[in-house]
Amino acid sequence: MAAKDFNILLATDSYKITHYKQYPPNISKVYSYFECRIREGDRFKAVVFFGLQYLLKKYLAGPVVTEEKIQQAKLFYLLHFKQAVFDEERWRLLLEKHDGRLPIRIKAVPEGMIVPRGNVLFTVENTDPDFYWLTNYVETMLVQIWYPITVTTISREFKKILARHLKETSGSLDGLEYKLHDFGYRGVSSQESAALGGASHLVNFCSTDTVAGLLMAQQYYSCPMAGFSIPAAEHSTIISWGRNREKEAFEYLLEQFPSGPLSVVSDSYDIFKACRHIWGGKLKERVMERNEDSRLVIRPDSGDPVETIIEVLNILEDAFGSTVNSVGYKLLPSYIRIIQGDGIDINSIEKILKKLKSEGWSAENVNFGCGSALLQKINRDTLNCAFKCSYVETEGKGMDVYKQPVTDPSKGSKRGRLSLRRNSDGYMETVEKGNGKPEEDILTTVFENGSILHEFTLDEIRKNARLREDDIQDHQNSLNVDTLYPERILNGLH
Question: What is the pLDDT of the chain when averaged over all its residues?
Answer without folding.
Answer: 94
